[in-house]
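User:
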Amino acid sequence: MGLRRWRVWVWGVLAWLAGCGGGGSSEDLASALRREPALSTFVAVVQASGLEPALAQAQGVTVFAPTDAAFEAWWTQAGTSRAELLADPARAAAFVRGHLVDRALGRAELPTGRAITTRSGVVFKVENVAPEGLVATDGQQGRARVLDGSLPVAQGFVHVVDAVLRPPKHTVLQAVQDEPTTAWLAEALVVAGLAPALEGPDRMTLFAPTQEAWQAHMASIGQTWAGLSNQPQRLRQILAYHVLQGSFLRAELPVGTPMTMLEGGQVSLDRDGVLTDECRCPARIVAADRFATNGVVHRIDRVMLRNP
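Assistant: Predicted structure:
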């Protein structure tokens, strides 16, 4: 029997046993993790973290447990090793907290498309992607498949994932600077004096017009980029209309309810992911949910404008 089929069979049996006998109690979280042969590295990290007693007492939690193969890929990405992680209890604890959610979420309860926040503050989302099934996207846009089967335990649930969930590395401003299709926008945000708001502690959602959107806008007003970038006040009026206070993934944005932007003005979103500005012109979200340390970025295909 292959490992994946074996896991589904064993976890199915455990889930059935959890509801039978023993007063309806289910298996302890630590015991369930140790039972799974593909999770030996994660078990070692939990033990090194010193969190095992606390996890034994926890209630209403969900663990996203990376496989041993996921760790092998992550050692290279993170520039570290198993020995280094296990020798550092504080780092091991941070790793475990980055895969621990303080809600009991079975497979059917995972909020698809919406932010899931771990105990350490790492934010990720889970979506149903054909033909892979449930896929988690982490803070660095990495993908982790949620493997078949979820194990109900006394404390909540365990989901096995095939990649480590990583936190975002960039602020909202840095995320724009890191993306080639929004290079002009990054420069314009600095010129407009909005950089502090997009690098600070307050969480923000940025609707980021692409390079092509800026080119179309400048052509419509008979302006060059050099000319527009020398008008900081005008740029601020335009760009503040693209910033929404708070962090909202695409699935969390209100549909049909006007959103009030950072310095006034409203924008509405329809069910197809099309924004309508005060000039009643459409702007489509072409790339959603770029995670940042202080918010999220959605790329759009048009510069939005307020009423004159």
